[in-house]
UniProtKB/TrEMBL annotation:
<dbReference type="InterPro" id="IPR011829">
    <property type="entry name" value="TTC_DH"/>
</dbReference>
<dbReference type="InterPro" id="IPR050501">
    <property type="entry name" value="ICDH/IPMDH"/>
</dbReference>
<dbReference type="GO" id="GO:0000287">
    <property type="term" value="F:magnesium ion binding"/>
</dbReference>
<dbReference type="GO" id="GO:0016829">
    <property type="term" value="F:lyase activity"/>
</dbReference>
<comment type="similarity">
    <text>Belongs to the isocitrate and isopropylmalate dehydrogenases family.</text>
</comment>
<dbReference type="GO" id="GO:0051287">
    <property type="term" value="F:NAD binding"/>
</dbReference>
<dbReference type="InterPro" id="IPR019818">
    <property type="entry name" value="IsoCit/isopropylmalate_DH_CS"/>
</dbReference>
<feature type="domain" description="Isopropylmalate dehydrogenase-like">
    <location>
        <begin position="5"/>
        <end position="348"/>
    </location>
</feature>
<dbReference type="Pfam" id="PF00180">
    <property type="entry name" value="Iso_dh"/>
</dbReference>
<protein>
    <recommendedName>
        <fullName>D-malate dehydrogenase (decarboxylating)</fullName>
        <ecNumber>1.1.1.83</ecNumber>
    </recommendedName>
</protein>
<keyword id="KW-0479">Metal-binding</keyword>
<keyword id="KW-0464">Manganese</keyword>
<keyword id="KW-0560">Oxidoreductase</keyword>
<dbReference type="InterPro" id="IPR024084">
    <property type="entry name" value="IsoPropMal-DH-like_dom"/>
</dbReference>
<keyword id="KW-0520">NAD</keyword>
<dbReference type="GO" id="GO:0046553">
    <property type="term" value="F:D-malate dehydrogenase (decarboxylating) (NAD+) activity"/>
</dbReference>
<keyword id="KW-0456">Lyase</keyword>
């Protein structure tokens, strides 16, 4: 039996609600699959914790988390705490502290009715964005000089190391080779004449080691246009921290919205636990109303299963979401339905259980 310890950080706002539905899916898998057993431990960190304690997580929080097999995060953020504090002192602290330098976001359309793009089908929108997750524009390096004076100057410095750039691009090439798909690099080398020229150079260097992988390179503005006009161009995408953050929200917009957008934060060497999360944020305006969409949180469970080499369970979960969307009877308001968060989660579990049972009987 594979015993897996999962650290739960519900966080803020709707994070607490959607995470419960994801945990229900994990418990369902535990019940059905005799080879998997999940142990859970919940941590109360987030903005409420900050208001009470002056910090987003315990000082030794990373030490507490390091022996878990995975971290499952709900959401972070609340108007009572500045966004840069809530982001840097919890989410980014975990990403950087555990060297989760790979961020994986699947841009997959599961039902054609959900895309605002005319004449685009499920076959046209199905690609993976691999985002550098440890440095770049989010390195946190800079300076604020002459504050409050007419000579005030702010510097925000992007950091691109050879180690950091090589490892994310090489990871992307390995993934493209494994899946037998093309790889597209997205940068801005014409305007950012140091960082992005360097990125393009490293991409070209590493491409020589992978002659079997077909490659493309786009400027980020052109890529943004192609995300909308010709998403079928993309199979595997690799890009920087900032560009990946922005482009994957655009990807969510063309596949049904942030309620269906999940992200995995991975240390490929498995020296530290990964973290899985919906990327929609804490949505404090609807928190506590029971109407949040849990499907992104459940999709992140599918990513977790893939990380644990339980690909069949990932397939079951994604197909269950697909069936639920096709039924259309248990959707939350963001998808045009009237269901509560728990009703959507419960129906998905019914579909998942029935699907697995039927497949076992064949």
């Amino acid at each position: 039996m594979k015993r897996l310890k999962i650290a739960l950080i519900p966080g803020d706002g709707i994070g607490k609600e959607v995470l419960q539905e994801g945990v229900k899916v994990l418990k369902t898998i535990d019940k059905i699959d005799n080879n998997l057993f999940f142990e859970f431990e919940e941590f109360p960190w987030g903005c409420d914790y900050y208001v009470k304690n002056g910090k987003m997580m315990d000082d030794n929080g990373l030490e507490q988390l390091k022996d878990f097999d995975a971290i499952y995060l709900g959401a972070v953020g609340h108007p009572s705490v500045p966004d840069h504090v809530s982001l840097w002192d919890l989410l980014l602290k975990i990403r950087k502290g555990f060297d989760q330098y790979v961020n994986l976001r699947e841009i997959t359309l599961l039902n054609q009715s959900l895309t605002p793009l005319k004449d685009k089908s499920e076959e046209d929108i199905d690609f993976l964005v691999i985002r550098e997750n440890s440095e770049g524009e989010y390195a946190g390096v800079g300076e604020w000089m002459n504050k409050g004076t007419p000579e005030e100057v702010v510097l925000q410095t992007s950091v691109f190391s050879r180690k950091g750039t090589e490892r994310i691009i090489r990871y992307a090439f390995e993934e493209a080779r494994r899946q037998k798909k093309s790889l597209t690099s997205i940068s801005k080398g014409n305007a950012l004449n140091y960082s992005m020229v360097f990125w393009d150079q490293v991409f070209n260097e590493i491409s020589q080691e992978y002659p079997d992988v077909k490659t493309y390179s786009y400027l980020v503005d052109a890529a943004s246009m192609y995300f909308i006009k010709e998403p079928e161009r993309f199979e595997i995408v690799v890009t920087t921290n900032l560009f990946g953050d922005i482009l994957t929200d655009l990807g969510a917009a063309i596949t049904g919205g942030l309620g269906l957008a999940a992200g995995a934060n991975i240390n490929p060497e498995r020296q530290f636990p990964p973290m899985f999360e919906p990327i929609h944020g804490s949505a404090p305006d609807i928190a506590g109303k029971g109407i949040a969409n849990p499907l992104a949180a459940i999709w992140s469970v599918a990513q977790m299963m893939e990380y644990f080499h339980e690909g069949n369970w990932k397939d079951y979960i994604i197909e269950s979401i697909r069936v639920l969307l096709k039924e259309g009877r248990y959707l939350t308001r963001d998808l045009g339905g009237k269901s509560l968060t728990t009703e959507t989660g419960d129906r998905l579990i019914e579909i998942l259980t029935q699907m697995v049972t039927e497949n076992k009987s064949k």
